Amino acid sequence: MRRLCSVVILIAFAISANAGDPDILDDFLVPPGIDINSVTRQYFTFTGLRDMQRVNYTGKTESIVRRVTKKIFPALEGLGVSVSRTFYPPLSITPPHYHPRSSELLVALDGPLEISFIDTRNKLFVQTLQAGDLFVIPRGLIHFVNYTRGDCGGGTMGIFGSANPGTVTLGSTLFESGIKADLLAKSLQNR
Ligand SMILES: *[C@@H]1O[C@H](CO)[C@@H](O)[C@H](O)[C@H]1NC(C)=O
Ligand SMILES: *[C@@H]1O[C@H](CO)[C@@H](O)[C@H](O)[C@H]1NC(C)=O
């Protein structure tokens, strides 16, 4: 009995260690109510990033992010991939955040920009990327960007191994979620 128990536990671990988007048993999925025979190449096409080439960033000091997940591109459902396209105004930042369900492969389309992440030992990794460089941010770790160019804006593409990686931004999670201010103050003092 004891032996059987540990086998069951081992299997449970093996399954949970492989946590990613679930596999699907079809080539691709279509939303409920859509006939798969009606699907054309348009279903696999997303054109909603075209305007990222001409963002109006007047007065903005924070990056402008468009997350292309299964929520706005339903064809991604079940395929385990998604992207985020970010535009950086000159001397702008992306505030600290993390993605609970995926690592991120960041592609610098312009540069230089400074990417940082912090691991679970509280070790800070800071790297300066030039246009064309890639940088990987392990799943669930807090990261942020300082776009250090002052003469023009620039962009990045984040590539995810999940159709819905999720984003938790520390500032809004802590200060805009309704946690009582006195509890928060006490918690932060005690770290
Ligand atoms: C860009 O945004 C600024 C500030 O919101 C606005 O004043 C300006 O008219 C916009 N420019 C264009 C070309 O839309
Ligand atoms: C971002 O980089 C610029 C240029 O290197 C630097 O002056 C600025 O202090 C940095 N900002 C932050 C918040 O680290």
From TrEMBL:
The keyword Disulfide bond does not apply. Residues 1-19 form the signal peptide. Mn(2+) binds at residues 97, 99, 104, 143. It is found in: Secreted, Extracellular space, Apoplast. GO terms for cellular component: apoplast. It comes from the Eukaryota. This is Germin-like protein. The lineage of its organism: Eukaryota, Viridiplantae, Streptophyta, Embryophyta, Tracheophyta. Its main location: secreted. Gene3D superfamilies: Jelly Rolls (2.60.120.10). CDD domains: cupin_OxOx. Belongs to the germin family. Residues 47-185 form the Cupin type-1 domain. Oxalate binds at residues 99, 104. One of its GO terms (molecular function) is manganese ion binding. It comes from Citrus clementina (Clementine).
